[in-house]
Every structure is written in structure tokens, then in C-alpha cells.
């Protein structure tokens, strides 16, 4: 009984039936794996939901409170005896972590999913992060980054002293749930975008790139955009301003995206900031190569010319050239992109690596 592990997993991630992605599958499988290993686990989310396997999880919803404030109130009221407290999508090195250690003897693990701005933080923010690292990093026993890029940024943010307790655990995808494209069109291929619609995703650069394409291609090419977000209206205005409204098809969020990747030949992701993109992994798992930028951990997944193409962020001219060459069949990806994901970025491997954090 003394060796019984009990985990609290705090996750600032809204549970939405219309948006089921890689993290949802991870939560479900990690919960099931913990139970198989006789590990108790309580989940703290902003809300409750019963879609997918969420009805199998023990969920406490923070409602209008922040996850951090809710968990502290919960701990004071119930005095749970957690052996591990894991945070996901929660800001690191804040006073919250000191308060956790005042209430619990649990080992605290902070997982960093946060992308960094393209030009880095302002000097003021850099100083603030260094100060927070000095004051509060001691209350986090293990830092986990979802890519090597993320780990480097964690060390850059909070100080070299956190390096010895920082490690990479790559995100993974539930490959069996993703349908595979069997044949790829090399002449006049189809394109999709799968992204939250916000400015940092760079879709405005794609709109400009498409507007620069030769007239003959513009008369035919169509790009299907899956996703929603606060920048959608601006993007609608941009496609009108650049006279490419007929070239973009906005489909909104789709809960069955894992079944839709395989209907396309290439994915476009012109993002300005990224940690380690699950949509890239999902696309590659569907045997759909990815055209994306050199930011974050993208180059830890994409090998230029092998399973996709890399260009510099905000470079609409180069993106236009890539799209033109690909559309005409002058450059192409011929390899099966699914195999490398099966070997290196599976959901099972991600879950296994997270379970090892508890040993």
C-alpha cells in the first residue's frame, strides 16, 4: 500500500466534442494505462465532458476559477495524498508551484507546450522569466518539454540551473485512428490546412502566397481550411482583398479530422510559432506530407524534401514558389510518411515515456 501512486493532473485544456485531437487521445490512454498499473489519477480541467472516453476519467472542473486557484482550494479542503502532481498547459515557475509544495509532499512535474514568439520575448519579459526561474523553479522537480526546442527554451527562460532536471518527451499520435492515404497525386495535388485560426498560425502569409500564383494555377487550385478561431474574420477579409476567395474553403472545426487528412495530398502549415505540432504528426500519419516553417520543433519532424518542405516564416514568396512547383509536379514527396511516425511518435510511446516519469 505504501507504494501506491496517486496522481493529480492539472490541465488548462477545454474539453470540446467538436475538437477531438491528439491530446484527447493521450489523456484517455494515459488514464487507462495508469489504471492498468494500479495508479490512481484525478484530472483537473476547466470543464467536464462525456465525449470519447472522458466519462471514464475522474474529472474535477474548475469552472470560472483558474485551474491553479481551483486546485489549491481543492487541496486545502480535501487534503489529498498525491504522490505526483503534473501540470499541462499551465504557466511554469509561478508562485502557484511554491503554494503546491506548502500543501503537498508530491513530486511536481511541469510539462511545457507553449510556443515562443518568432522574435523572442521582450527584454522585460526575459528578465521576468529569469526572476521567476530563480524564485520558483526549485518547486518543480521535473521540467518536460514536448520537443528538444522546447527544452532549450525552458532553460533559456528560467536559467541554466534547470537543465539537470529537464527532459524531452515528444508528443505522439494514435496512429490507428488516422486513415492512411494510399496514393498521392503529383500533378495538381490537393491541399489542406488544419489549424486554430489565430494570427500566429501564419495563414495570412498563405493567402498572400496563393494570390501570387500564375493565373492558370489560380483558376484551379483550392485549399481547404479546417479549424476555427479569433482570426477567422480577418482571414475572410484577406481572401476577398487578395481576390482568392474561390481558392479557399473554410470548413470550421471538425471532430473527425483524423478521417479527413487522407483525402488530401499535402498539408500547409505556415506557422510563426510552434512547440511540436500534433497536426503535423497527424498529417504525416495519414501519409500526407507537410509544407511548413522552420520554427519551434518543426525541423525535428520534417526532413526537407523527404517527408515535406521547410521554408522561413512569413516568406510568402518562397511559399508561393513551393506551391507552384508542387502543383505542377516539378517537386514531390514520394516516400510513405506514415512509417517514421509509427516508429518514433506513436501515442503508446508518449504514454510509456510519461509513465516513466512516475518511477
Radius of gyration: 21 Å
Mean pLDDT score:
96
Structural class: alpha/beta
Number of helical regions: 12
**Residue runs with pLDDT of under 50 for 5 or more positions:** none
Q: Please outline the major beta sheet.
A: 7 strands, parallel
Fraction of helical residues: 25-40%
Short characterization:
With 359 residues, the chain is an alpha/beta fold. The protein has helices spanning 22-36, 67-78, 95-103, 123-136, 148-158, 203-211, 215-218, 232-241, 278-285, 316-327, 338-344, 347-356; strands at residues 5-11, 39-45, 59-61, 84-88, 107-112, 142-145, 166-168, 191-194, 223-226, 248-252, 266-269, 290-293, 308-311.
SSE layout and pairing:
Elements lengths: L4 E7 L10 H15 L2 E7 L13 E3 L5 H12 L5 E5 L6 H9 L3 E6 L10 H14 L5 E4 L2 H11 L7 E3 L22 E4 L8 H9 L3 H4 L4 E4 L5 H10 L6 E5 L13 E4 L8 H8 L4 E4 L14 E4 L4 H12 L10 H7 L2 H10 L3
Helix pairs in contact: 1-12, 2-3, 6-10
Notes on the structure:
By secondary structure, the protein is of the alpha/beta class. It is 34% helix and 17% strand. The strands form 2 sheets. Strands 3-2-1-4-5-6-7 form a 7-stranded parallel beta sheet, with helices on both faces. β11, α9 and β12 form a beta-alpha-beta unit. α1 (22-36) packs across α12 (347-356), α2 (67-78) runs parallel beside α3 and α6 crosses α10 (316-327). The longest helix is centred in the first third of the chain and has 15 residues, at 22-36. It is globular. It starts with a strand and ends with a helix.
Amino acid at each position: 500500500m505504501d507504494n501506491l501512486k496517486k496522481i493529480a493532473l492539472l490541465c488548462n485544456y477545454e474539453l470540446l466534442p467538436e475538437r477531438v485531437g491528439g491530446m484527447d487521445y493521450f489523456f484517455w490512454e494515459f488514464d487507462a494505462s495508469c489504471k492498468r498499473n494500479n495508479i490512481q489519477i484525478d484530472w483537473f480541467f476547466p470543464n467536464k465532458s462525456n465525449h470519447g472516453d472522458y466519462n471514464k476519467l475522474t474529472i474535477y472542473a474548475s469552472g470560472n476559477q483558474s485551474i491553479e486557484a481551483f486546485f489549491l482550494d481543492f487541496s486545502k479542503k480535501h487534503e489529498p495524498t498525491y504522490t505526483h502532481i503534473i501540470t499541462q498547459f499551465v504557466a511554469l515557475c509561478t508562485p502557484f508551484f511554491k503554494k503546491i509544495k506548502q500543501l503537498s509532499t508530491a513530486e511536481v512535474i511541469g510539462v511545457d507546450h507553449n510556443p515562443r514568439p518568432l522574435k523572442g520575448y521582450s527584454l522585460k519579459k526575459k528578465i521576468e522569466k529569469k526572476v521567476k526561474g530563480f524564485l520558483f523553479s526549485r518547486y518543480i522537480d521535473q521540467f518536460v518539454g514536448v520537443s528538444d526546442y522546447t527544452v532549450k527554451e525552458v532553460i533559456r527562460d528560467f536559467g541554466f540551473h534547470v537543465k539537470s532536471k529537464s527532459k524531452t518527451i515528444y508528443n505522439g499520435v494514435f496512429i490507428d485512428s488516422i486513415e492512411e492515404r494510399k496514393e498521392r497525386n503529383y500533378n495538381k495535388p490537393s491541399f489542406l490546412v488544419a489549424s486554430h485560426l489565430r494570427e500566429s498560425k501564419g495563414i495570412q502569409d498563405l493567402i498572400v502566397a496563393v494570390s501570387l500564383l500564375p493565373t492558370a494555377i489560380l483558376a484551379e487550385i483550392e485549399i481547404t481550411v479546417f479549424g476555427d478561431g479569433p482570426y477567422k474574420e480577418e482571414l475572410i477579409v484577406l481572401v476577398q482583398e487578395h481576390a482568392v476567395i474561390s481558392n479557399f474553403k473554410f470548413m470550421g472545426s471538425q471532430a473527425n479530422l483524423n478521417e479527413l487528412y487522407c483525402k488530401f495530398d499535402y498539408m500547409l502549415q505556415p506557422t510563426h510559432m510552434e512547440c511540436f505540432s500534433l497536426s503535423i504528426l497527424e498529417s504525416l500519419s495519414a501519409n500526407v506530407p507537410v509544407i511548413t516553417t522552420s520554427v519551434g520543433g518543426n525541423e525535428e519532424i520534417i526532413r526537407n524534401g523527404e517527408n515535406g518542405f521547410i521554408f522561413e516564416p512569413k516568406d510568402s514568396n518562397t511559399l508561393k514558389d513551393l506551391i507552384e512547383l508542387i502543383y505542377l509536379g516539378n517537386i514531390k514527396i514520394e516516400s510513405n510518411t506514415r512509417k517514421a511516425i509509427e516508429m518514433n511518435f506513436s501515442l503508446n510511446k508518449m504514454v510509456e515515456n510519461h509513465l516513466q516519469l512516475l518511477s
